[in-house]
Structures
1.
Amino acid sequence: MAKKQATALAEFTSCIDALPHLSGHYFELSPSVIKKIGGKISIRLICTVNKKVSWQCGPMALGNGSAYVTISAKRMKELGVKPGDKIHVSLKKDESKYGMDVPVELAEVLKQDPEGKKRFNAMTMSKQRYVIQYVSTVKSSSLRVERALLLIGNLKKLKPGKESLREMMGLPPR
């Protein structure tokens, strides 16, 4: 049976702009787009630009009822766009559990470590996504295993509910 395709919550045209407070780029979601996606920004989305490139994302508050989604240099290159260019955006609700794909290596560590899995599942979604992202960012499978073991091993040493991402990485608390 084929997977049911989610219908777009919103389709619109936007312009790529530079993030004033960080290096990188974004496009804006107007208050009317925010209303179409449910009236809040605490939602995970699948963003498709110019019907070519899709990724999982979460809007960030911009002020005045607007929000933004970042767009990486790699995605801009794939799309052949630059700052100032207009783009077509389609937003669908992300139905995945974490709002991103879990690396096989992390899934295996959690499968083999019931206590680690319990502690991981007890964390906030944003911290879970951070762990998933941190493990995912390296290309080497062996490094992904090392990162997963480090984070989950350190997580089990921390007081439940007081998990610090720095301490999970083996860094001293601030």
Note: The mean pLDDT is 90.
2.
Amino acid sequence: MGEVAGVFLRLGVVAFGGPAAHVAMMRQELVRRRGWLTDERFLDLMGATNLVPGPNSTELAIHLGHERARWRGLVVAGVCFIVPAALMVTALAWFYVERGSTPAFTAVLDGVVPAVVAIVVWALAGLLRTALRTPQLALLAGVALAAYLAGVNELVVLFGGGLVAVLSSLLARLAGRLRARNARGLNALAGPGLLLVARAPQEGDLSTLFLAMLKIGAVLYGSGYVLLAFLDGEFVQRLGWLTERQLLDAVAVGQVTPGPVFTTATFVGYLVAGLPGAFVATVAIFLPSFVFVGLLTRITDRLRQWRWTSVLLDGINACALALMAGVTWVLGREAVVDPVTAAITLTTLVLLWRTRLNAAWYVLGGAVIGLLVHWLP
């Protein structure tokens, strides 16, 4: 338990860069350095998190905690991954309320993000060999990547790819029907559609805040930009508790701090009701993830045993890596813009290849270089 807590607390402090970076850092730390599980098992857990709503990287952390220390590990890993970011966001929300603005993170991020890009690229290189075992899966990943870069919604790419994999396998089996057994049906896995309707609120009402955040955490698929749409609909349009500018500031803080982007909810909660609001909003938006992963752990081990769920998982894993590659490409174009950032990325890649250092050192090194470049004339 101490090992689980220590690993995920550290990841919660240094995991800049969004879900793709979080996944890469978990793979570097838990598969490559510590050997808790294989790449194949890691991919299966990552694929399972895509079947339910909520923040995927946080749900993966919860899964990995369960993998290592069962039910206590499930809770400890999730809490330790969330708490550092939630505390940082709460402090920034206090600063925002007291001073009317957020501190500048540009210098740190200028050095951190190129290192994060390298970490994600290295993780992709290792995971692709495991996920793309056949030419068909490689082709599917290529099509998924092209679709994402063309602007197709992430959920359409992900579940569309899983469906294509299942249909392709079905057609292949039908072609050899004389030798095949009767195919078993596939019970499609979908996230529970928990819909909670908040009652008519009063400003600062903690129960209304809790229900609104719980609803979002229970039904939201997709990236931080999808979260922005949900928060806008609830807190700007319906409840009228925030302005558009305040919401954008909240999302910015969630993006530039390490850990889950969903800690944007912590910032929103603080603006609505101070420290109690920050606590209530954080608990509410992450609570469904613990429930969903707790339910998934009962069937995750069987996903590879069932013929059609195994095919579905292969397709989802291939498309998930394609999405990860697409996000990395977009992030890399924005982050690697001059000789310094290019040097950070290349140096990090070389160190990942030649050493087994903790990912925190790469992030810390990037942050120091970013600050030095900012301060030096």
Note: The CA atoms of residues 298 and 335 lie 40 Å apart.
3.
Amino acid sequence: MELEEIRKEIDRIDNDILSLLSKRLELMPAVAEYKLQNNLEQKQPNREKKLLAGKIKLGNKHGLRKEYVKDIFKRVIEESHEVQKEIMKK
């Protein structure tokens, strides 16, 4: 496979990742509304710990380093909190 072909495949995968991240964030208003209606705290450390542990375990099965997966999902969680915070402060 030529380098340009490899790069095109990488670009396609990157586009898929961005699309999926966007779809994930689109769900945050519904999460925030549920939390508001059910008097739940925005941040839920136990849920975050379970989520991170599960993603690290799954990442490991795919040959991904723990730190890599942890860093990615910590940032994903932070961005989710930012979206929720905007909705919940209204």
Note: The chain has one domain: 3-88.
4.
Amino acid sequence: MYMSVDNADETAEVVVDNGGAVAIWLGEIDEVSRLAVCTDPLGARFGLWEPRGHPAASRMHEPNSFTWGELSCRDIDAAKDFYGAVFGWEGRTRAVAEGSTYTEFFLPDVDQAVAGMVQMNQRWPKDVSPHWMLYFAVADTDEIVSRVGHLGGTVSVAPFDLADVGRIAVLNDPEGAVFSVLQRR
């Protein structure tokens, strides 16, 4: 998950000043962007992307395009503090089913969430590290899942329905990268 920033160098300093780290400095990419891979204080990796004229994705939320980024971690207060300090995000947490919470991140003065966060509770295996999950919009989650094995991937979490959101599955590509697909309601 890359976050677009005005200045990657300055933002990297803010990351470090707030307990994160710069894991990999990729620097200039063909003079169209500047990139760094960072970790937050909880260990989740994310990227900084200074576009320098390279356009962002022109399509989102349509089938077969990026639709959502979600942080999974065990300490949502620490994550809210960190991402608030680094990106200016406001974390708004609300109760959801079965005593769990869900947090949405908002930019200042913008009432549309830019990312989400789920607290990893006792249902999550202890060896699952904090991470950002990328979601891709699809027209039919079950149809996508039916093709994964033939393409060399695996299904980590079988399709399930999440109230008021849609049908989700967690998949691994042939190299092991994890991502989710979401058929919105």
Note: The chain has two domains: 2-50, 65-184.
